[in-house]
TrEMBL record:
This is Transglycosylase SLT domain-containing protein. Residues 1-26 form the signal peptide. Keywords: Coiled coil, Signal. Residues 28-62 form a coiled coil. InterPro entries: Lysozyme-like_dom_sf (IPR023346). The keyword Cell division does not apply. The lineage of its organism: Bacteria, Candidatus Lloydiibacteriota. The keyword Magnesium does not apply.
Length: 432
C-alpha cells in the first residue's frame, strides 16, 4: 500500500545519471560542424581583406597616375565586397548560434514541464503518506519500518526533483540572456553591413568618375595628369567646397581647415585626420542629428549627464539635436564630433583649457574639433603613420576593446581615405 513506485525510483535515477547542466551545454554535432565551417570561411576572407588593404596602402604611397588611381579604387571595392561577404558569414554564424539557443530553450522548457508534473505526483504521494495516522498504519497490518522507509524515499525524490527544477530554471534564464546578446550582435552586424554597402556604392561612383577621365584623356597618361592637375589646382573650387557639420551650420572648407589646424597645433594630431574623422562621423547612416534625447539616448548612462550639460550651457535639451537610436544600441551622440554625453563630460576640463572658455559646447565647431583632436591623441594618433592613425580612428568609433575586430575595419579604412582626400586639398592650398 505504501511502497514506493518503480516510476518514482526511475525518475530519481535519471537525475543521478544525467545531471541537468549537461542539457544546457549540449551542442549537436551538426551545429558544431557548421560553426567550424563558417569560422574557417570567415578566417580566409579576413586574410583576403588584409591583402587588399596592403595593396591599397602601398598604392596610396605611389605618385599620382591613372593606373595608380584605378588600382586604388579597385582595391577599395574588393575590400568592401570581401568585408560584406565576411559580415554575411558572421550573421550566418550568429543565426546558427541563436537557433541552437532556441533549441536549448525549447528542450529546457519541455524538461521543466515534465519535472513539474513529476514533482506534483510525488507531492500527492507524500500527502497520502502524511494523511495516515500511526493507528491506521498499525490497523492495516503494514510493517512500520517499511512505512517510514517509503516516507523517507518519497521525501528524497521530492527534494531531488525540486533541486533539479531549480537548476533547469536557472539554466533556462541564462540561455535566454545569451540568446538576447546574440540577437543584439546580429542586429549590429546587419547595420554595419548596410553602411558598408552604401560605402561600396560611393566608391563605385568615384571609380566611374575616374573612368570618365580616362575616356576624356583617350588613354594618354600625360593628358590624364593634366586633367588631374587642372582639377586639383582649382583652389577657388576647393575654397568654395562646403564642409557640412552635424548639429551646426555649413562651414566653408577654409574655416573647417582653420579649426583643424588650430587643434593639430594643440594635440599633434594631423589636421587632415581630424577632418576625416569629423566628416565620417557627420555622414554615417541615419545618425545625422535628427534624434531626441528622450527617446534615443541611454536613459541611465547618458540622459542625466545630457541634462546637466545643456543646463550649464543654458540650452533647451528638447531642441538640441542628437543622433537617432540605431537598430542595435543607443544614439544620443552630440555635435560634429558625435560624442555621447558620458564621454564628453570626461573631456570637458581639457577642452575648456584649450578653447579658453567654460563650459565647452559639443555643438560649437571649435569645441567639437578640439574634443575630437584630444580623443584621437589619447587613442595614439599623434604618433603619426598610417597604422597608428587608422587604429586611433577605430578606437574613436568602437572603443579600445573592439578596435581590432574585423567587423569595424571599414570605419578605419573610410577615415583614412577621407584623410588622404583632405591632405591633397591642404597641400594644394599651401602651394597657392
Amino acid at each position: 500500500m505504501f511502497s514506493v513506485s518503480k516510476t518514482a525510483f526511475f525518475i530519481l535515477a535519471v537525475f543521478l545519471i544525467f545531471p541537468t547542466p549537461l542539457l544546457a551545454q549540449a551542442v549537436s554535432g551538426d551545429v558544431a560542424a557548421r560553426r567550424a565551417e563558417l569560422e574557417s570561411e570567415l578566417g580566409q576572407l579576413e586574410k583576403e581583406i588584409d591583402v587588399q588593404r596592403k595593396i591599397l596602402e602601398n598604392k596610396q604611397r605611389e605618385s599620382i597616375s591613372l593606373e595608380r588611381d584605378i588600382a586604388i579604387f579597385d582595391a577599395k571595392i574588393q575590400a568592401a565586397t570581401l568585408s560584406i561577404q565576411a559580415r554575411n558569414l558572421s550573421i550566418k554564424k550568429l543565426t546558427t548560434e541563436i537557433s541552437q539557443k532556441e533549441n536549448t530553450l525549447s528542450a529546457l522548457s519541455s524538461k521543466i514541464s515534465r519535472e513539474k508534473d513529476s514533482l506534483a505526483q510525488v507531492l500527492r504521494k507524500t500527502n497520502r503518506l502524511d494523511s495516515f495516522s500511526l493507528a491506521e498504519v498499525v490497523l492495516s497490518n503494514e510493517n512500520l519500518s517499511g512505512f517510514f522507509r517509503d516516507f523517507e524515499s518519497f521525501a528524497l525524490i521530492k527534494n531531488g526533483l525540486q533541486s533539479s527544477f531549480d537548476e533547469l530554471e536557472s539554466a533556462r534564464q541564462e540561455t535566454k540572456k545569451e540568446q538576447t546578446v546574440l540577437e543584439g550582435r546580429q542586429l549590429e552586424q546587419e547595420e554595419l553591413r548596410y553602411i558598408q554597402e552604401l560605402q561600396k556604392r560611393s566608391i563605385e561612383a568615384d571609380k566611374k568618375q575616374k573612368r570618365d577621365i580616362l575616356a576624356a584623356s583617350k588613354g594618354v597618361e600625360a593628358q590624364y595628369q593634366k586633367i588631374v592637375q587642372e582639377k586639383e589646382h582649382d583652389a577657388a573650387a576647393i575654397r568654395a567646397e562646403l564642409f557640412t557639420l552635424q548639429g551646426s551650420s555649413a562651414i566653408p572648407f577654409e574655416k573647417a581647415l582653420e579649426l583643424a589646424n588650430r587643434v593639430a597645433a594643440d594635440t599633434g594630431v594631423r589636421a587632415a585626420l581630424i577632418l576625416g574623422v569629423i566628416a565620417e562621423e557627420s555622414n554615417l547612416g541615419a545618425n545625422v542629428g535628427t534624434g531626441n534625447w528622450r527617446t534615443d539616448m541611454h536613459p541611465d548612462r547618458d540622459a542625466p549627464i545630457f541634462l546637466e550639460i545643456t543646463k550649464r550651457l543654458g540650452l533647451n535639451p528638447d531642441t538640441m539635436p542628437v543622433s537617432k537610436k540605431p537598430w542595435y544600441g543607443w544614439g544620443g551622440a552630440m555635435g560634429p564630433g558625435q560624442f555621447i554625453p558620458s564621454t564628453w563630460v570626461l573631456y570637458e576640463d581639457r577642452i575648456a583649457t584649450v578653447v579658453g572658455h567654460s563650459p565647452p559646447n559639443p555643438w560649437e565647431p571649435y569645441d567639437a574639433f578640439t574634443a575630437t583632436g584630444l580623443l584621437m591623441k589619447d587613442n595614439g594618433a599623434a604618433k603619426g603613420g598610417y597604422n597608428a592613425e587608422r587604429l586611433a580612428a577605430l578606437r574613436y568609433f568602437a572603443g579600445w576593446k573592439n578596435a581590432t575586430k574585423p567587423a569595424y575595419a571599414f570605419y578605419g579604412d573610410e577615415v583614412m581615405a577621407l584623410a588622404e582626400k583632405y591632405q591633397r586639398q591642404i597641400d594644394i592650398l599651401q602651394r597657392n
